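Dear support,

We are seeing what looks like truncated structure output for some complexes. This example has two components. We would appreciate it if you could run it in full and send us the complete token output so we can diff it against ours.
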Amino acid sequence: MIWMLMTIMAVLFIFNFPMYIAMILAPLAVILSYFPNLNPLLATQQLIAGVSPIVLLAVPMFIFAADIMSAGQTSNRLLDFVDTFVGHIHGGMAITTAATCTIFGAISGSTQATVVAIGKPMRARLIEGGYEDEDTTALIISSSIIALLIPPSISMIMYCVVTGASVGDLFIAGVIPGLMMLLFFAVYNYFRAKKKNIPRTPKMNFNDKIKAFKKAIGPLGFPVIIFAGIYSGMFSPTEAAAMGVLYATILEVFIFKSIRFRDFQSIALSTAVVTTAVFVLVGAGSLFSWAISYARIPQILTEAVLGVDPSALKILITVTIFFYIAGMFVDSIVAIVILTPIFFPLAIAAGIHPIHLGIIVTLQAAIASISPPFGCNIFTACAIFDIPFLKVVKRLPAYLIMLVIISAMVIFIPEISLLLVQ
Amino acid sequence: MNNFFNKTLSKFEEIVLSASVIGMAILLIVGVFMRTVMNSSLTFSEEVATALLVLVSFFGLGYCARKGRHITMSIVFDMVSNKYKKVFMIVISLVSALAMAYITYLATLYVLSTKNLGRVTPALQIPIYMMYSVVPIGFLLACIEYIRTFVFNIKDKSNFYITSEIKIPLDAEIKTDLNNLIDSIEQNKKGVDQG
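Here is the complete output from our reference environment:
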């Protein structure tokens, strides 16, 4: 039964079938051949139930807000802002890139959007500023994954829908690991720029700083609305996301005047297309986890891999490895909706905090997306910057080592994830 | 016939999808406004927004397939030659079409069974089967799209089709992976439309 499920999924995945078809066909085949008493019509019910939780409405709203801001001026204003503050220190431009990716992550919640929005304008500036191409691309794609940890994060919402954990808690729990990544990258780039003697830009005076701050105050308000709204209890995550759309619209249409109302149809269409592609997977994921839990596959599988009554540490390390490998091949959302239901019951039984597990899962999916040879962000960078694969991955190992250290810290010190959660 | 699918149907799908996203945003924003400022919650706003999300999730299947936007793992596909890419697409579109036909059948039966139960939504009292009927429609649109991709691949000997809209000459040299290939073709199309 397990072999049938895995073989169908693996074969369809490898041969380039749309993933949603693989994720619908495999559980359906198991139901039809092993549980003839189960009505296959219920599969449709599961597909619909999977996309119906109200908190999921936050996902298209965050995507929509990000699409509106990407069509406008937000990313450039943020770059200018961060640059005036750290441009003059060693590796200042590199640090600017990482910091801007962090802030933009707080706006868009998507790593690939971050590569496009920050990476494109910043790469030209970095190379002009004396940075090597290999360093630049490694920096950009590594910084872009901070977006997965910094709220709002779509992967995190998916984890919460699958497990029933609180979105607000997981959002705030991601802040410290996200800032740790920024700190590690900043320190590394400081010393690397010092060693390579990359010229520094002159220090800005106070007036310039005020000017840059004024220009960026609009975009910077976005994370404030999301955070303050959710943590004051004023908005649910879904409402906060809808407010994000309103805020982005007011900002780009009325204040910056960078987009017009008639652009909204094409912006909404691009949001809808991403939403369809992601949500059919979410529905299929719910069908998948319904079928496997009916067949008791999580119990059989985890017993085979982990033995009976494994320790919490053993579970965490297994989860890390599984999510890392899966994240290299498939989208982080797919990895989360398929793998989380398998490990979650066991992890909770072993006393692992659901938020701690959520941070580990998200972090591994993030790291996997920049791991050679298959990480999808590497290919995004190849395409956007039009440079060969080997050039993109040349300077990645340093970042991957830093990320492995952070992973170890997050696994062994639960407080990193749980400190800000009440 | 091709014009119907590429222009009329696509246009219709585009309008439905983008209007749903905008409608969702407006409903939720108005809902927040009513709750926080007017102190009276709109019970139907989240209900309708969820219905729109179900609509976008499934109604867009055919459109996404036609534009090559479904998420796939193209590692093996990217490595093989164009001749095998064509074989891949023939098999994928045929199996996908059959799978979609079966799921359309299941979903139709399911919707009919909810119709017989006569369930309605809590706030607006709309029959729930109306909201669910987008599911079989979406799968049917995807099924049609995969059939067309299959037929085009069989009929046309000198090109291969990734989707019914995206064709590539068999002798073309392909350097990037599937996703970026689709992106660049879309970019070119836009350029041609504007120029």
